[in-house]
Specification:
alpha/beta; 8 helices
Length: 219
């Protein structure tokens, strides 16, 4: 069952904004490939992997290339359409579906690995989304949550944006977006610890990096 309720604290990405994001994040492909390679060392070979809020689907596609059985859920109809087209162009099979992170249309205990990258700050019900990520895990499965953190410095964000290799106009737009919207939506690490505890994550590991964090838990 898919839920029509809005799953964003702000506006979801649809239409031209989602298409711009698709074009821009293609520049970040080495990072998607590196993350997929990391996950491949942690998930069982040919295991079931779920990506929550995949956007244009680049990480899911890279995981499918590595032999995983991948499904992905995003609330944006535009993103789901783009992701399906991107998967077809890459000649890999990924099930992209429209759905709400707080009520995933995924069976309980069906996934070996769940990943959510750069989307958690936008969820309307973050604790329920965290609970859902754990619910769909099989025993022994792992969740990996990656996102921006509230106290990331402007200098570090600028270094990240400049490393993407996009045009100066896109760099300017991205910096404005980070400073006026994304940083304000992001959570402090203490809030991440509190929410993971509320969601029933057992002994989560939270690693901090220059602009964000990674939170892990195993069921």
């Amino acid at each position: 069952m898919f839920i029509a309720a809005k799953a964003y604290r702000g506006m979801g990405m649809e239409g031209s904004l989602a298409r711009w994001y698709d074009r821009t994040t293609r520049k970040d492909m080495p990072q998607f490939q590196a993350l997929a390679a990391r996950i491949a060392t942690l998930a069982p070979p040919r295991g079931a992997v779920l990506e929550v809020a995949p956007g244009p689907g680049f990480l899911s596609i890279e995981l499918a290339k590595r032999g995983f059985d991948v499904c992905a859920v995003d609330i944006s109809k535009t993103f789901v359409g783009l992701a399906r087209s991107n998967a077809a162009a890459a000649a890999v099979a990924v099930r992209f579906e429209v759905g709400n992170a707080a009520d995933l249309p995924i069976s309980e205990a069906s996934q070996d690995f769940v990943v959510c990258r750069a989307a958690f700050k936008n969820f309307a019900d973050p604790v329920e989304a965290l609970r859902e990520m754990r619910r769909v895990l099989r025993p022994g499965g792992t969740v990996l949550l990656i996102d921006l953190r509230r106290d990331a410095s402007v200098a570090e964000i600028r270094r990240y944006v400049e490393g993407l290799g996009v045009s100066w106009l896109n760099r300017l737009f991205m910096m404005v977006t980070f400073r006026t919207m994304l940083i304000k939506r992001a959570y402090p690490i203490d809030d991440i610890r509190r929410m993971t505890a509320q969601a029933g994550w057992i002994d989560p590991r939270i690693d901090v990096n220059p602009i964000g964090f990674e939170a892990w838990t195993t069921k």
